[in-house]
């Protein structure tokens, strides 16, 4: 098949899967509903199940889609940024920073507080996650020659510090453990429309920026010097991509906790099917990541129903074996 | 004034100089080679000459313009670079990699125009890799990969072409092939070419100018016949050589003189 046609076919299949997953997400849940109820809600404006279909299930599925898309896009960007197929949105320390922020907020007894219409926990998660990456970036800029490896290693080290601080807080306050699990393994239990409204514009903006610089990312894969010599403003491109990917990951973590493996594996799936060209990789990764997470969330809330599993368990359960397969395939 | 004028250039990586006191002048359409042993600063110099290093002082003029005042985009319209062969992380095809050479001529969101496709077809043909265009670069041999890198630089369509050790990692015959391609580019397309190289005999028939680099400084520069002397080679490479005439090209070539040893036995 021609590459162009393959991409279109892939996108169509994805959209079909997404439509089916969204439909299933609407139909399945703790309260038994029949397809007829859904039909009545949509086509006869029957308000009986409005809260369940609209505010609970649709809202949650959409948030899962947006977060999955954000994480996958962030991962696709960082894998190109580090020229390393093993990079993911959390490699520079966003996740550890964000979860530290959230747990810090919890342990100060501010778990229920809110500001500017957002929960204080989300704001803490976002703020600490983003600050940590900024600090990592500044630290790695101190050498005369910027090395991507320095940034990567500084990020890993800073992430480890944040993680151990999180563990320390949990150790001190064992009563906040249950809430902390939410941040450490991820969940969409608390989904509401405000969060959908918060993630959507960021995702849209970041996707536009990524698409605008997609050709530059292709050049970056050849190495910084080569990209420069082909005419790309590498320093600016790198700064923008790092900011965009960090923003995506921090926003995602702040609404749903750390959901691992989506950002790592989804870009790989897409790359295997449509090739490494970032002009197509970014958008299709977002679409795939979103769809994948809608499905995972569906599983997370139905497998042990009525108990909900943290979604991080599901993504890792699917993601980790695939990751191992990839590792061995690359030999 | 030449198309490339370099005066009193020094460059490094933030901790001491790697090259210094560099003065080079290239005429339009000239083919020059920078020659020196490993660690003499050849790669640093060829990168510094296109503004790829931060820690640089001195003066570089391209086409009369101050290189350091140009944007990356403007430089990319004047100088194309063929780096040493490196591995690619992701599996791009030959066509995709060569198409990247058109970046500087394209709009951000634009695909390949008819003109782009025309240029790409020409350069693929010129370096004889048309039959490989659908293949992944990672699956090519060293010689094929080097030609793909040259094709990408040619797709950039610049008056100047810089190459870093184009014959390294290549078998004897491929090295020769690369220099034949470069000669055609110089004579047929009027490109000004500057290449670093460690294989002296390979460059002698092709280079119009040789620049000897030793410990970051230019030891001597001039036409190949004047430059290829026992003294220069001894000076730069610390090697004793004989200079004799190549039977076919009638140009000088060097042959190493082995140091005497009593243990060595020569077998027929």
Q: Could you walk me through the main structural features you see in this protein, from its secondary elements to its overall organization?
A:
The complex is a heterodimer of chains A (331) and B (268). Chain A has 331 residues and is mainly alpha-helical. Chain A has helices at residues 3-27, 35-43, 50-81, 94-107, 120-140, 148-172, 177-185, 193-212, 214-220, 224-229, 234-256, 262-274, 278-302, 311-329, and strands at 114-115, 118-119. In chain A, strand 1 (114-115) and strand 2 form a beta hairpin. The radius of gyration of chain A is 20 Å and the shape is globular. The mean pLDDT of chain A is 86. With 268 residues, chain B is an alpha/beta fold. Chain B folds into 2 domains: 1-78 and 158-224, Rossmann fold (3-Layer(aba) Sandwich), CATH 3.40.50; 89-157, no CATH class. Chain B has 9 helices and 12 strands. Chain B has helices at 42-48, 72-76, 94-99, 114-126, 142-155, 172-189, 200-203, 224-227, 230-237, and strands at residues 4-12, 17-26, 31-35, 56-62, 65-66, 79-82, 160-164, 192-197, 209-214, 217-222, 241-245, 252-256. In chain B, a hairpin with a 6-residue loop joins strand 11 (241-245) and strand 12. The radius of gyration of chain B is 20 Å and the shape is globular. Classes of the chains: A mainly alpha (331), B alpha/beta (268).
Question: What topology emerges from the helices and strands here?
Answer:
The complex is a heterodimer of chains A (331) and B (268).
Chain A: H1 3-27, H2 35-43, H3 50-81, H4 94-107, E1 114-115, E2 118-119, H5 120-140, H6 148-172, H7 177-185, H8 193-212, H9 214-220, H10 224-229, H11 234-256, H12 262-274, H13 278-302, H14 311-329
Helix pairs in contact in A: 1-3, 1-13, 3-8, 3-11, 3-12, 3-13, 4-5, 4-6, 4-7, 4-11, 5-6, 5-11, 8-11, 9-13, 12-13, 13-14
Chain B: E1 4-12, E2 17-26, E3 31-35, H1 42-48, E4 56-62, E5 65-66, H2 72-76, E6 79-82, H3 94-99, H4 114-126, H5 142-155, E7 160-164, H6 172-189, E8 192-197, H7 200-203, E9 209-214, E10 217-222, H8 224-227, H9 230-237, E11 241-245, E12 252-256
């Amino acid at each position: 098949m021609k590459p162009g046609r393959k991409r279109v076919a892939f996108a169509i299949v994805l959209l079909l899967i997404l439509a089916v997953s969204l439909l299933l997400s609407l139909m399945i849940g703790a309260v038994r509903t029949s397809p007829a109820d859904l039909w009545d809600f949509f086509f006869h404006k029957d308000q009986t199940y409005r809260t369940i279909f609209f505010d609970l299930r649709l809202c949650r599925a959409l948030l899962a889609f947006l977060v999955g898309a954000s994480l996958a896009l962030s991962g696709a960007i960082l894998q190109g940024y580090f020229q390393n197929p093993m990079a993911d949105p959390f490699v520079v320390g966003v996740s550890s920073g964000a979860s530290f922020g959230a747990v810090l907020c919890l342990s100060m007894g501010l778990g229920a507080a809110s500001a500017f219409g957002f929960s204080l926990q989300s704001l803490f998660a976002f703020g600490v996650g983003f600050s940590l990456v900024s600090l990592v970036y500044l630290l790695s800029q101190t050498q005369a020659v910027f090395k991507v490896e320095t940034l990567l290693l500084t990020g890993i080290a800073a992430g480890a510090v944040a993680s151990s601080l999180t563990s320390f807080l949990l150790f001190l306050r064992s009563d906040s453990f249950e809430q902390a699990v939410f941040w450490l393994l991820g969940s969409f239990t608390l989904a509401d429309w405000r969060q959908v409204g918060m993630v959507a514009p960021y995702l849209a903006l970041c996707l536009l920026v990524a698409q605008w610089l997609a050709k530059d990312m292709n050049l970056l894969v050849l190495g910084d010097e080569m990209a420069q010599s082909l005419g790309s403003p590498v320093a600016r491109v790198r700064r923008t991509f790092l900011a965009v990917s960090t923003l995506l990951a921090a926003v995602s973590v702040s609404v749903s906790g750390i959901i691992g493996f989506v950002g790592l594996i989804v870009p790989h799936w897409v790359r295997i099917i449509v090739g490494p060209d970032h002009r197509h990789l970014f958008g299709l990764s977002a679409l795939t990541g979103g769809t994948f997470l809608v499905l995972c969330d569906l599983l997370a809330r139905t497998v042990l129903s009525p108990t909900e599993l943290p979604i991080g368990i599901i993504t890792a359960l699917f993601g980790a074996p695939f990751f191992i397969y990839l590792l061995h395939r690359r030999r | 004034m030449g198309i490339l004028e370099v005066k009193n250039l020094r460059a490094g990586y933030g901790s001491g100089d790697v090259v210094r006191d560099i003065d080079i002048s290239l005429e339009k359409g000239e083919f020059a080679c920078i020659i020196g042993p490993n660690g003499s600063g050849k790669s640093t110099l060829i990168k510094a000459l296109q503004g790829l290093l931060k820690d640089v002082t001195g003066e570089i003029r391209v086409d009369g313009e101050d290189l350091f005042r140009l944007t990356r985009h403007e430089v990319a319209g004047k100088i194309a670079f063929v780096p040493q062969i490196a591995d690619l992380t992701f599996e791009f095809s030959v066509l995709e990699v060569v198409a990247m050479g058109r970046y500087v001529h394209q709009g951000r969101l634009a695909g390949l125009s008819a003109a782009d496709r025309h240029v790409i077809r020409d350069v693929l043909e010129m370096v004889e890799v048309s039959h490989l265009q659908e293949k992944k670069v990672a699956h090519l041999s060293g010689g094929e990969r080097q030609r793909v890198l040259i094709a990408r630089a040619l797709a950039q369509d610049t008056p100047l072409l810089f190459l870093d050790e184009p014959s390294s990692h290549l078998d004897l015959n491929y090295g020769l092939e690369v220099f034949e391609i470069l000669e055609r580019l110089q004579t047929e397309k009027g490109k000004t070419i500057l290449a670093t190289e460690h294989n002296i005999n390979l460059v002698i028939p092709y280079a119009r100018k040789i620049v000897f680099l030793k410990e970051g400084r230019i030891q001597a520069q001039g036409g190949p016949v004047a430059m290829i002397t026992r003294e220069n080679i001894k000076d730069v490479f610390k090697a004793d050589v004989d200079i004799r005439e190549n039977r076919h090209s009638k140009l000088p070539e060097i042959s190493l003189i082995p140091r005497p040893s009593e243990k060595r036995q020569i077998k027929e």
